[in-house]
Amino acid sequence: MKKLVWIAGGAVLIYICLVLAIAVIPAIELSKVPAGPDVVPLTPLQAQGRAVFAANGCDYCHTQQVRPLNEDKVFGRPSAPGDFAYQTPELLGSERTGPDLTNVGNAKPSDVWQYMHLYDPRSVVPESIMPNFKFLFRVLATVPPGETAVPIPAPFAPKDGKVIPTPQAKALVAYLLALKQTPIPGYKMSGATSAATPATPAAAAPATAATPTAAAPAAAGGYAYDAAKGEALFTPHCAVCHQATGAGVPGAFPPLKGNAAVDNADPTLHIHTVLYGAQGVTIGGVAYPGAMPPFAGQLSDADVANIVNYERSSWGNQAKPVTPVEVAAVRAKGK
Ligand code: HEC
Ligand code: HEC
Questions:
Q1: 19-31, pLDDT tens digit by residue?
Q2: Which of 113, 116, 229, 241 for a ligand 2 pocket mutation test, highest count of atoms within 8 Å of Cβ?
Q3: Residue 89: is the preceding peptide bond cis (ω within 30°)?
């Protein structure tokens, strides 16, 4: 009998020691990690959105952890412990059926886009396999005072009525827009400046500049427009809103095909819009509800030139190409 007590007691003791060593003590240690620079607690609305995120299983398909690997560079810098100071229990996720969302507030900063995408992902990403979350919206005959209808394009919109986000949808989108990585002073990401070219170090650029391209080279400081690069940059950064066809989404995102700012001999407004974004501009007689996000912080002058030139020479547009020097000049003038 005594022996049995020793065996059982010893086993329990070993169990308690293991739990302390691998769970309790590390958790206490981790909870002492200070918040990263500029990491702020969620607002009550954003915290409510986080609960909606968890309740709807968004983390079954989406991670919130950027690994220090090359293939994760598209999502941002590697995650650091201080990033999660106010986000416990962490929604790290283990499956990436969809992209990592750590930095989605920077990558997709438009609430209009987020609402459209939640209502029906196909309305903005034609090839998307993400399920729709229509139950987070109400369809009403008229827009109630103080509410704004989501501009869902006709093929995806309900036959009649306006699509109005529910309080859960509003909280969820507030949370998504709050998912932004903050820079860590002194940390610099090696390699690419942009999502589309993670494997191409900047040092490889002179080699491409020497290669003749199909499009007319805008020779300036060794720069030649590279149509493939332009398309590779346009697709992740711009096509989600303006669409691969350049046709935009009626009522939500303006067309770039035949756009007066794009198909224009003077590229200033075009470059300025890409660098510094825009809001409330009436384009082709239409006022758009959302904002065009600024890209000055994430795209180099050469990247902007390649994107701008892609737009100026696609879908029937025939404006003269620009150079990184012209982009730099607009950048220098500031917003
Ligand atoms: C069954 C898997 C799945 C579930 C569940 C899911 N998603 Fe997605 N999600 C995807 C896929 C695939 C994509 C990429 C295609 C696209 O953009 O629609 C995506 C894309 C996204 C994007 C755009 C990210 C980017 O950087 O382009 C956001 C934002 C997003 N999802 C939010 C959510 C939210 C919020 C939920 C929960 C309400 C959710 N997702 C649930 C699969 C899923
Ligand atoms: C989140 C959605 C979104 C993304 C991503 C986006 N845009 Fe826009 N864009 C808009 C909206 C909305 C407007 C209209 C802004 C307004 O009404 O002032 C716009 C306007 C424009 C205009 C028209 C300017 C004018 O005065 O006619 C150009 C050019 C443009 N975007 C280029 C780009 C390029 C290039 C990219 C990628 C680097 C891009 N956009 C990415 C939403 C987006």
A1: 999 999 998 888 8
A2: 241
A3: yes
